[in-house]
Gfo/Idh/MocA-like oxidoreductase N-terminal domain-containing protein (Digitaria exilis), 756 residues
Amino acid sequence: MEDPPPPPEPEHHHRPVRFGILGCAAIARKLARAIRLVPGATIAAVGSRSESKARRFISENGLDGAAVRAHGSYEALLDDPGVDAVYAPLPTGLHARWAAAAAARGKHVLLEKPAAPCAADLDAILAACDAAGVQFMDGTMLMHHPRTHEMRNIIADKKAFGDVRMINSVLSFRVSDDFLQNDIRVKPELDGLGALGDIGWYCVRAILWAVGYELPTTVAALPGSVTKNDAGVVLACGASMRWAGSKVVATFTCSFLASLAMDLTVVGTNGTLRVTDLVIPLEERSAGFSVVATPAMAELAVGWGPPPAEVAVATDLPQEALMVQEFARLVRSVRDDGGRPEGKWPAIARKTQAVLDAVKASIDKGCEPIEIMQGLNN
Amino acid sequence: MEDPPPPPEPEHHHRPVRFGILGCAAIARKLARAIRLVPGATIAAVGSRSESKARRFISENGLDGAAVRAHGSYEALLDDPGVDAVYAPLPTGLHARWAAAAAARGKHVLLEKPAAPCAADLDAILAACDAAGVQFMDGTMLMHHPRTHEMRNIIADKKAFGDVRMINSVLSFRVSDDFLQNDIRVKPELDGLGALGDIGWYCVRAILWAVGYELPTTVAALPGSVTKNDAGVVLACGASMRWAGSKVVATFTCSFLASLAMDLTVVGTNGTLRVTDLVIPLEERSAGFSVVATPAMAELAVGWGPPPAEVAVATDLPQEALMVQEFARLVRSVRDDGGRPEGKWPAIARKTQAVLDAVKASIDKGCEPIEIMQGLNN
């Protein structure tokens, strides 16, 4: 017997998710564009510390000044009844306060990464979202690129790829002297995790992704990998991770002081996967990776093959728009259909944050190994 | 004023270097082919533990049984007055004895890697070579590929590449069950360093190469990276390195238990270099690497460029033949022109071995950081 045809989508499914942008950071411009690319999402309001800043953001980003409300405070944006969800690109140090406040007012929360300065802060945010029954998602755009799903299929292929053994991620971009003096990401009270939070976040997320989100049991910062500024904010660091009882080892290094690199290399028992523009693909329409499956040496070991296969994955929408699309879909499910928030995204964020906490703790303890509690809260 | 034309090469420069192959390991077949590819080199003799094995090697590798002498012991090969230089692919545990013996009999020494089980053994070999005035070189073929020189030019380009900041190397190949039971590389008395010696050697060499052969000050094995067999031989491991007073951090992982990977990634302040077939190029005639110079983000950080440039470096001779060619050139300089042995190769071997020693010591001490003495002997 065939399945009956699905019922026609109810009218309210076409009602877009109305976003409020909470803070006018540079990254908000990218997200404003992304929201506008998604049919099921719209920008309803922008909130900044002054109304003029919010207005300027609206005009500079080609938004409709008649339709998009400008709020002169974060509170005003959160009080806006025409906002379903907030996108919050605030400095990390402000996340706990404002993301929790947004949830308490019934707003769904799309929160820029790093999600919080520490797991305890993120727990408070997640508890607020949970209590309010709103969706939480962090702003790790790469999770939503179809390339990421394609790479997951490769790694899951036991025949061609086998079991994961070694993971390495290198994330860096060289910041300007002005950044080193003035950017929020070098200020202890605003983004206390520095490069660890800003880009190490991706290394940790990618490593967790590669192992199916199993938390490592031990994390250790790499001796000599840590550079801090005078205020103690991390400008470069690295760490290794182990999973007790497994043969997996992961390493990463991240830096504000080296040229652009966005590498993830995963070596399995049968194959190898490499990507070098993990966080921001070189181009919007297509992103590549390279894969070697069951390679073998030539006679006399004078060569080997097959050579790496270059895989290109096309996408109509950029990854940040796909993120907005997925978030909006989950929000509609809660708002319109009485669905429950999707637990996967907060869980992944929480695990990423737990590992960042451990790396930070190891840095603070002279690269001592740190055990990660494998509790229910993880 | 123009330089005068060089004098004609004396006749004896055309007299080839006569190699004796000391031991019939699988790798010797590759080197036998390489020696035959080099005009200035010839195979004069093969020595094995039995004459029949030596004869079989000669016939199986297409050598001229009438011209190439078969010796039934290593001693006999070393006593052969028609041998200028030995290529020794013996188990590492036998290097100190036989390489030193070869030097003592005035033979130049091309020694397979790892050069020795420990730096003390290598020091004995190098002292013997020094006392006898013979050339020493280890068998790290990749050093002689023109790609390696080309990559060096990239890294040395202060404008396009800047200063080295992060280095990662991943070296692995998945061995068979038979290898895990029977290969000399898993036997403590034959190749006690296991994967660390066999492939970690390349990681360490590549890292040293990337920093201009400056010894790291501290080396630490990575917690969780070490797998040993029942006899205590390392099957997989990893380490990080630091150079006091610099911002360079290097990591590597190597494994007999993961699929083929031969990666080196070097990130500088202005550029990035990546190679994924470092040790054995996919093909003999051409080898590639990828380089990014002074990359920049697109507007709104929705992409970046320029994309990595793929560089292909052609070579007429495979890298192992280039190694033989360079070694033979140095031997001729000593043999025919009263030149002194080239000190660069023993020095690089010694530094590589010093770092391997430190990694091994760290492994044995539960991943404790190990300081490397920066003495004259290094």
